[in-house]
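Researcher: Here's a chain I'd like modeled. Treat it as a single chain, no partners, no ligands.
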Amino acid sequence: MRLVVQGRAITVAHLTHIHRLIGGSTQFMQIAEHAYYLPTNETDIEAVRAFCAEQQIDCAFVPDNQRLNRYGLCVMDMDSTLINIECIDEIAAMMGIKPEISKITEAAMRGELDFAASLRKRVTLLKGLDESALQRVIDERLQANPGAHEWIAACKANNIKTMVVSGGFTMFANHVKALLGLDYAVSNTFEIVDGKLTGHILGDIVDADRKAQELLKLRDQLGLKPEQTIGIGDGANDLKMMSAAGVGVAYHAKPIVQQQATYALNHTGLDGVINLFTA
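Model: Modeled as a single isolated chain. Structure tokens:
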């Protein structure tokens, strides 16, 4: 196995202290500007986890067989994972009701509300909004999260297919698919009549179950084994998808997601996923 530590806060003093906690005769090897790994057989790293959390460093114990070239599919959430915003909250800002909708979004992401019901409630509040507001969110507010381009480039270099599966909406998911060069996109669709949102969603909602189903369906279409898949997300509605994957990565995620994920990244960008599986 290997201990992977990463984050902009890392110093030589940190590495020295972690090495002392782990022991062993080998030294840390640098794999990126702010990322290092240490081969180790140690299985109890609670002291290391506690120290890294205190110092704002990400750490993970990664089996040696988990390498990028062994994966074939990565399925990712969109809002606050691949991109920097919750799209529906920013749409709400155009109507002056962002605090009201953000409160519902946060509760849903923490797993305190049923996602589908909460989404319908939020979309109802957007009734009457001009369709042009959706493009304004893309033009003025939507950006890829740090490291997203690098992570997708690494996937392409290793022949890993990529899919965004989002409880958000098609206009945004298709934009992100084109922006990052993803292979597939699955999301919800606003009902729009005469250029205005009706407050309704067309078709079945992309919820936690649907996210997991889309991963399994594409995995089987590609002829991959369960252990050849990666799921990345940040909210409670990503948990089933991440659980269906061979490896689940919590990216700057809610506590409930971090607790159940295989690995958690809190202090690095999405390029930190590359470092987990490279040595």
